[in-house]
């Protein structure tokens, strides 16, 4: 295991060292008259961040020679399409009414520009690695009816650039709303693209030039909301922790004292609650390969999240170059595949499983399988729209090679190390051969009510922060306050663990020993063949579920394991987050169109599924430690 960790950390270090954004002018130092690189990136509807197209997809006048910038993997994943712009901005050279180009627009090109203006298109450029945004045109509303609207293309750009000695510090662009051309009618037009350049000196140092963008993303009142949300979350968790400690001291301690080591029971019925099922709680669950794969995949995603936050805290992610984040996600996920293999096969070996190869395949495909399927579907949608989100064949080939020659070998290596580990499952109590029947439980102790109850508090902890994260991922802001995000994540983990442990105790107190898995069988609630059924209520759709589990996981037997109780309670927060996606999409944004809708809900479904696996693993491990502790504290014959 030590060698595996060393390999993973070394690979992450190399990746971080090479992930910084580099300009064409590597040192960002220029002399008067030097041509500073200006790249036109993309255009698209402002409300649809995933629907972007190359800048020259619109009929702008292009330079004599269009040169594409060599892009990193992260920039390609981010949908960037950097080419040299038709505007020449030499260092410290002012220009007034400089003509970039003249062009005759055909009727089709006029319609194309008008459609873009109607959809509120914006453009993005990079000047010395500093982002620039602007809108293509404006709409004059002359009446309530749409035919009365007039569409104007903005032709005059004002570049305001600040410098400190030999470095560019800040750049912005203003659109001249008086120099426009009317595109309302379908006719040929002669247009003239003009720009001004105004250089100003500033005392801001080069190291602080990105602070402007950080301040524009989070205003002072936003930071106040962040701090207030964190304080409320921490207070909530402290109250929850206090309640748990009080419960432990008053209830569990009392139970421990009643169950003394010298007490000999003459009748099992003298014991009640969680002590009555002493010999049943540590029986190995059915389909151990599936539960081990789930825990292995969840552990990998947990380590991935921690490493991403650490990289954000140390400043690896260059502001307004989200390609670094995407590239880090891809590489770290591939590198941490060994953790998934090791965790899965280790736990599978502890449960005395034999088919460790199938378990390893489960662990490798449990998250990546749905993710790759979603990617293929969305790739097809992006290709049909000819959008930048459609990755080129070369990039797809790189990703396939990365999974084939990095992720899969590390997964196998971790699996071999886990298989050869000598750890055993340490159950503090003896295990009976014939488990007891579970008494009838009220409806509110069912799977769905308990899941709904378990996810409320952890979701409330992260609710406020979710808006800012979504505004960064699905908007035009940049999230840079990783310290706050890290604190919220830790609070989320604590809340998830405490809530899951509490619900697990209530389940055991009701003499329900199926805290590993919740079994849904065709004829009622039971765990294995031969165990009595508590009722004869049919489960609608059981045949379909049996077919799905057979196809996906190869599960056999008259009884089918369907849900992990403690895992579902911990992972239910992911379902709450997915529900929040609908609120955010329809109430907080103006996103529209099939492409944007499919990208938003497709990838958010994968992200929420990842949270489900990760937080479910946290909840399961917390419940496992808790159950071991309470049953290890009483007499075990």
TrEMBL record:
Main location: membrane
Leader sequence segment: 1-18
Highest taxon of the lineage: Eukaryota
Bilayer topology term: Multi-pass membrane protein
Residues passing through the membrane, by range: 229-249, 301-320, 326-348, 360-383, 389-413, 451-470, 482-506, 565-586, 598-627
Family membership noted in the UniProt record: Belongs to the nonaspanin (TM9SF) (TC 9.A.2) family.
Protein name per UniProt: Transmembrane 9 superfamily member
């Amino acid at each position: 295991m030590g060698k595996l960790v060393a390999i993973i950390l070394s690979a992450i270090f190399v990746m971080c060292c090479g992930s910084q954004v580099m300009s064409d002018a590597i040192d960002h130092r220029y002399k008067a008259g030097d041509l500073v690189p200006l790249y036109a990136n993309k255009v698209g509807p402002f409300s649809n961040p995933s629907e972007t197209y190359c800048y020259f997809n619109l009929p702008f006048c292009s330079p004599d020679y269009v040169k594409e910038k060599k892009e990193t993997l992260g920039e390609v994943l981010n949908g960037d399409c950097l080419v040299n712009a038709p505007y020449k901005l030499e260092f410290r050279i002012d220009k007034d009414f400089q003509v970039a180009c003249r062009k005759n627009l055909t009727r089709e090109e006029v319609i194309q520009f008008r459609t873009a203006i109607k959809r509120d298109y914006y453009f993005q450029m990079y000047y010395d690695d500093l982002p620039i945004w602007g809108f293509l045109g404006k709409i004059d509303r002359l009446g309530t009816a749409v035919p009365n609207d007039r569409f104007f293309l903005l032709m005059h750009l004002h570049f305001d650039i600040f410098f400190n000695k030999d470095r560019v510090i800040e750049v912005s662009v203003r659109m001249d709303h008086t120099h426009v051309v009317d595109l309302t009618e379908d006719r040929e037009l002669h247009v003239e693209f003009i720009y001004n350049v105004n250089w100003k000196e500033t005392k801001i140092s080069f190291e602080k030039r990105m602070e402007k963008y950080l301040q524009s993303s989070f205003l002072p009142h936003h930071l106040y909301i962040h701090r207030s949300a964190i304080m409320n979350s921490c207070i909530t968790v402290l109250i929850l922790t206090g309640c748990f400690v009080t419960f432990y001291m008053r209830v569990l301690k009392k139970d421990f004292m009643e169950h003394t080591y010298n007490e000999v029971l003459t009748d099992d019925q003298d014991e009640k609650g969680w002590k009555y099922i002493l010999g049943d709680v540590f029986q190995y669950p059915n389909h151990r390969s599936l539960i081990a794969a789930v825990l292995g995949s969840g552990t990998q995603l947990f380590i991935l999240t921690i490493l991403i936050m650490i990289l954000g805290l140390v400043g690896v992610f260059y502001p307004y170059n989200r390609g670094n984040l995407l590239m880090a996600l891809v590489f770290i996920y591939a590198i941490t595949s060994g953790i998934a293999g090791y965790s899965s096969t280790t736990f599978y070996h502890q449960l005395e499983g034999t088919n460790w190869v199938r378990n390893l395949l489960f662990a490798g495909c449990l998250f990546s399988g749905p993710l790759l399927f979603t990617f293929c579907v969305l790739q097809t949608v992006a290709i049909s729209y000819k959008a930048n989100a459609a990755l080129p064949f070369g990039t797809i080939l790189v990703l396939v090679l990365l999974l084939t020659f990095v992720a899969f070998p590390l997964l196998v290596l971790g699996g071999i190390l886990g298989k050869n580990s000598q750890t055993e499952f340490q159950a503090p109590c003896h295990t009976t051969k014939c488990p007891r029947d579970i008494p009838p439980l009220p409806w509110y102790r069912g799977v769905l009510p308990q899941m709904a109850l378990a996810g409320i508090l952890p979701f409330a902890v992260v609710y406020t922060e979710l808006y800012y994260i979504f505004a960064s991922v699905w908007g035009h802001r940049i999230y840079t306050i990783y310290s706050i995000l890290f604190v919220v994540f830790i609070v989320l983990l604590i809340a998830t663990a405490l809530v899951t442990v509490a619900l697990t105790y209530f389940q055991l107190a009701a003499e329900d020993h199926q805290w590993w898995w919740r079994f849904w069988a065709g004829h009622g609630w039971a765990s294995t063949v031969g165990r009595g059924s508590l009722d004869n209520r049919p489960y609608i759709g059981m045949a379909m579920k049996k077919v799905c589990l057979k196809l996906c996981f190869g599960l056999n037997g008259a009884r089918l394991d369907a849900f992990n109780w403690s895992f579902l309670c911990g992972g239910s927060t992911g379902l709450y987050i997915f529900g929040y996606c609908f609120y955010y999409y329809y109430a907080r944004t103006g996103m529209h169109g099939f492409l944007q809708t499919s990208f938003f809900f497709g990838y958010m479904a994968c992200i929420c599924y990842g949270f489900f696996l990760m937080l479910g693993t946290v909840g399961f491990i917390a419940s496992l430690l808790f159950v071991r502790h309470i049953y290890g504290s009483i007499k075990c014959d």
